[in-house]
Amino acid sequence: MKKILLLLAVLVLLTAGTTWLVTGANRGWTKTSVPVKTLDDVTGIEGITYQKKFLPGVDFLGAAFVVAGALAGTSLFFRNNKKQTQNQN
C-alpha cells in the first residue's frame, strides 16, 4: 500500500506538471477564458471577445503539490511489508 501511494503521488505531480507545460506554462492564476482580439469586417473597429479555454496556472500546480504531499504523507502511516522466512534445519 505504501508503494502504491508514493507512486500515485509521483503520478499526480508528473501529470499536473505535464498538463501545465503542454497548455502553455501560465505563470498566473488559472484561467477558464482568454481574451481574443477581433476586427469588425464592416467598420474596422478592433474589439475583444472571450473564448472559453482552460489554462492551468500556478495555483493548479500548488494544488497538485498539496495532493501529492497528502498522498506521500498518508503513506507514512503504513509499514513496509517484509515477510520473514524461517530457516527449518
Description:
The protein is α+β, with helices and mostly antiparallel strands and 89 residues long. It has one domain. Helix content is 44%, strand content 21%. It contains 2 helices and 2 strands; from the N terminus they run αββα. A two-stranded antiparallel sheet has the order 1-2. Helix 1 runs antiparallel to helix 2.
Features:
21% strand; two-stranded antiparallel ribbon; 2 helices; 89 residues; alpha+beta; 2 strands
Instruction: Report the span from N to C terminus.
Output: 33 Å
| Estimated structural class | alpha+beta
- Whole-number total of structural domains: 1
Q: What is the count of β-strands?
A: 2
Radius of gyration: 24 Å
Helix coverage percent of residues?
40-55%
Number of helices: 2
Major sheet summary line: 2 strands, antiparallel
- Strand proportion: 15-25%
Mean pLDDT: 89
Which blocks of ≥5 consecutive residues have pLDDT under 50? none
Q: Which overall shape is indicated by the principal axes computed on the Cα atoms?
A: rod-shaped
Biggest β-sheet: strands ordered side by side in the sheet = 1-2
Secondary-structure element order, as H and E? HEEH
